[in-house]
Amino acid sequence: MTTDSDIERAIRENHPALIAYITAGDPTLEETAEYVEALDRGGADLIELGLPFSEPIAEGPTIQAAINRSLEAGTTPDSFFELVDDLDVEAPLLVMTYYNMILQYGSEPAVEPFVERAADAGLAGIIVPDLPAEESEPLREACEDHGLDLVFIVAPTTDGERLETIMSQVSGFAYVQARLGTTGARADVSGATHDSLTRLSEYDVPKAVGFGVSEGDHAAEIVEAGADGVIVGSALVDLIAEKEGPATALEAKAEELKAGARRGAEDVPEPEQP
Amino acid sequence: MTTDSDIERAIRENHPALIAYITAGDPTLEETAEYVEALDRGGADLIELGLPFSEPIAEGPTIQAAINRSLEAGTTPDSFFELVDDLDVEAPLLVMTYYNMILQYGSEPAVEPFVERAADAGLAGIIVPDLPAEESEPLREACEDHGLDLVFIVAPTTDGERLETIMSQVSGFAYVQARLGTTGARADVSGATHDSLTRLSEYDVPKAVGFGVSEGDHAAEIVEAGADGVIVGSALVDLIAEKEGPATALEAKAEELKAGARRGAEDVPEPEQP
Amino acid sequence: MSDSDNKTSFGAYGGQYVPEALMPALEELEDAYERYVLENEDGFMDDFRARMREFGGRPTPLQRADRLSERYDCEVYLKREDLVHGGAHKLNNALGQVLLAKYMGKERIIAETGAGQHGTATAMAAAHLEMPCEIYMGRTDVNRQRPNVYRMRMNGAAVNPVDTGRGTLKEAINATLRDWSKSVETTHYVIGSVVGPHPFPKMVRDFQSVIGTEAREQIREQAGRLPDSVLACAGGGSNTMGAFHAFVGDEDVGLYAVEAGGSTLEIDEERGVAPNSATLSTGTDGVLHGAMTKLLQSGDGQIMESHSVSAGLDYAGVGPELSYLVDIGRVTPVSVDDEAALDAFHRLSRLEGIIPALESSHALGYLERAAGPAADDASGQRPRAEEHENLGDLVVVNVSGRGDKDLETVLEETEKRDLEAAPDVEVFDR
Amino acid sequence: MSDSDNKTSFGAYGGQYVPEALMPALEELEDAYERYVLENEDGFMDDFRARMREFGGRPTPLQRADRLSERYDCEVYLKREDLVHGGAHKLNNALGQVLLAKYMGKERIIAETGAGQHGTATAMAAAHLEMPCEIYMGRTDVNRQRPNVYRMRMNGAAVNPVDTGRGTLKEAINATLRDWSKSVETTHYVIGSVVGPHPFPKMVRDFQSVIGTEAREQIREQAGRLPDSVLACAGGGSNTMGAFHAFVGDEDVGLYAVEAGGSTLEIDEERGVAPNSATLSTGTDGVLHGAMTKLLQSGDGQIMESHSVSAGLDYAGVGPELSYLVDIGRVTPVSVDDEAALDAFHRLSRLEGIIPALESSHALGYLERAAGPAADDASGQRPRAEEHENLGDLVVVNVSGRGDKDLETVLEETEKRDLEAAPDVEVFDR
Ligand SMILES: Cc1ncc(COP(=O)(O)O)c(C=O)c1O
Ligand SMILES: Cc1ncc(COP(=O)(O)O)c(C=O)c1O
User: What ipTM describes this predicted complex?
Assistant: First the structure.
């Protein structure tokens, strides 16, 4: 690992970090801008913005619905990037989208145009839930060329050689999937989380845990188990779908989660600096 | 041929003969008695009474319907025979029914009980539309034993050896089927009738033509072609189904048909007596 | 052919009780049957067999049913007639007859149909052989067997609804016989089972006998010996005789004709209704549709309405050869009721992944009754019940057809009952 | 196997674009595929073939279609996959995968289905092999393919309606992938076509390749030589690859993948709707459901709704191997529209007595377009149109399934149109 990326730095400096996900364009891009600012104010250290794809195979019902709302509102890669162009928040931003959306940007199927535009817009990294390490070379190279992190997911089923391969390719942070299944807020922290963090403990890269985190107490538990950050998505998307004036609620929720994470960190030693 | 049977005599003596068919029990047995008397008055020389069977495969729609009415009215072989017991008309009576009705009369499947009862009731003959010569031996023997005629049908398709066989077994008269198909009144006389009568001309037995005869003019044409009698069924059954006071209509129809037959006979030489 | 009978009958059964007008056609047919079918004139049988192979999908497999074998503590093999083109054994006969009609120079085909299986098979065969085809079908059946009506129409056949009587199979046969009386010179009547006047019962049996001929070879190859028993459902009895014929000479092989017990074997004499179609088990001798055979009839000789949950078994008569084989003790007639047949339908669907025709389900239902867990003593020893003992250790069941056609009926009838083997059929939004 | 490709892809197509959580399962499956399928470990392939013979009814015939041969002035042979148990080629794959899952020690089967054909095949296979089975099916499809839902339920499978999106195949696949993400350790996902991540496209192709392997042998035996061309419809492309695979090395044999042209090949960019499913003919490269392949997608990369009168072809993607074979010029993609497919459905039903699946009717529809009377010059000479010339003198058409399932659709769609080959479907009293 050479110098820390924006993302890595954001996690290490704000340890334990809160990583927030919302779907861009849900319900409109204008509102997304408001929500991003609210999350930033509330203490999110990194913000993932979902660029909607019509076949979100890794998402549970909550985020599926958000994606549908966004698509119905007409969100496109171009309008998404224009939103990001105009955003001005402290937390680095990542785009989370499916591989086909990246491939189709530009006139020919290729990854370069998307990455270039993402870098231009000031995005710090990319997460692609349907791109395993085996298929990631073109995108990884383009990301390196443009100084973006490509975040990989480590699943409860990831083990042995596969884990090695992935960890050798990780940049930014390792996205530790808390449990099998799809995204979606759940009321507990799974045993799989503990197992995964144990397996990963020997790798010197920030680890953030997502899939099912919804409350401050979960965040505390996860950080206590050794995570460097918690990733929260569906719980935030729920607020957007259900509350009036979601911005306020999002800010409060971010505060709760960040506080939870901090609570968890009180019992664990600060991670060693490289 | 030894001595003439009642049936044969009725045909020869009343030449050209009118043979009338109605379904017994249509709509009730009481009314059948009235109709039989009316036909007798109108000039019918022989009267066929249908004993209804649930599967009348040789009948057209008119007689099928009559059979259904009779069955619904509860006609049984016993009530049928009781009707015949009580009838007192000049024309000899025949029963027309399907073979299973004959077989099932009595406690075991056998033909004897039916024939015995028919003879007792004073019936002169039996016609069984689903009993070809090949299967007729038991019934023929029983009929001989009880002095009843068993009338056979000669179809337009009957030819060569089959015709020989049938004609050697005929008693009473040969029922010449005017055309292929089922019973039912039609508006013309078919060419098949002429052909059949030609084929039969060498056999010395009375020939009566049925299937489709409905008017005096048909009767004339048929007799002119060489028939010794005409058989009329559906046209009479139609009157029963359609007219108020069918007895009068039946009598008038019989008169019309008999007159027609006579008209036809004026142009043909009297048949030779044996 | 080794019929212990004279030319046109089986003992006292069979014969030719038809209007005189049809007799010449039967003579002509008899002649054609003897020349083409029995003597393979002009290579008729080779042609027929080749078409059944390429068009019809023969041979059908004989499949060991693993779950049934386990359940019944004996080796159960299924003869898979459900895989024949059209979904039932019916094509064996329909194709044979339409081809024969073609060899005879006939120009037109007519047939009756009840549930529509024989009608669809005939329509397929007629399309395959370019013969104009008309199917008679009772109005009631037309209305409740709509998909089969469509199939016939799509194969180019005309469908003539019959409005008389109850509008079911019996009336359709009557109507077809009436058409034939008119059209006999140019037309062949493709009768749908081993019923009707001679030579139909023999001819249909011969066309269907491929079932048993194949099964006999297959079981010898697969199990190394002849079966202890062969089970087949019996409506008219064509799949039955088809399955049995090759085994009739094998005296150690038990032959079970499983009839539709309907709701009960008891007869409603008053209304002239038999709430079953168990002709062989409960019928008396008489003449129907051209043959002497066992019948469901009143004391007077009127034919009764029969009933079965399975339309293809719902017939008041049965093939004369079966009547004969039952009388001489060669075939054992048994029956299972609607409920047991439905249960067996679900059981095979679930345990073996084969959805059988409701007709065939009767044969399977008898297996359950004779050899199922309830039939045996509940003690650990599992001493066999007598019926189970009689079936033996190696049983062939003829699955005469597939049950796709029966889904609606089965759903409706299942809802009324509490069946052991039925899935709970959730009803989705409509 | 002679794939001109690397291990997980066909040229640039294929790959494994799935969530990380599924990757270990794909590795495990790849290993099992190589051992059991490619190397016949534990006699897996022998077991599979025996079951396809006895349970599935293989081999299916290759039938010379006499009327079509005459009409098209060339020898037309039909590969009769409509005779496979369940009524379509789908069982070849479903049984292969469920058996493999069993050998792998999996405890549960899940699958997606659109029209219900793959679901019913999988439910049958699962019942046959005693595997608990759940089928995902879009709500819209559940409601319009009711008989198939019942069949699955009767075979003991659970049917899970999917309420997202338009409620059709695409959504069902998404839902099944989501289930699998959760249950991957104990569950095998039986994918229904040659799509999805490696090793599915190869494995499904290998299970289906029996179609072409049989056909190749049969045509050599029956016609004495290899065909000039092979036609198969292409949805996902499993019957297509199944029919083609054995012929890919025979460079003189033309391979035609016939896609659903729907109402038109033109795309409604505005609404993101393709009124067709002609992926190979009009699609662009992208990633869907785990593989890089040709897709119907918007310029941005959103997957379009596809459309076809035939539910089984109604899919916006296609197998990656087909994309590859089209790119290198080995397979010719063509398409016929709804109307031509319906017409071909009626034509085969009427002329040959075989009611084909609407999917298969597309392959037959192409034959009519390329070689039908209208395609040739009307002059007495009948010089062949170019398309006819290309098909050659000996053509094999894969009849991938039977059309019983399509009757309602065909009736409805036929009423809207004036089709040359359609019977006039009288409407009987309801
Ligand atoms: C599948 C099936 N099995 C059996 C039968 C009964 O006929 P048979 O007793 O002549 O075989 C039918 C009649 O439609 C049928 O469709
Ligand atoms: C009969 C039939 N043919 C073809 C298809 C299309 O699938 P594939 O292209 O994978 O063969 C289907 C799909 O349901 C089908 O049922």
Answer: 0.94
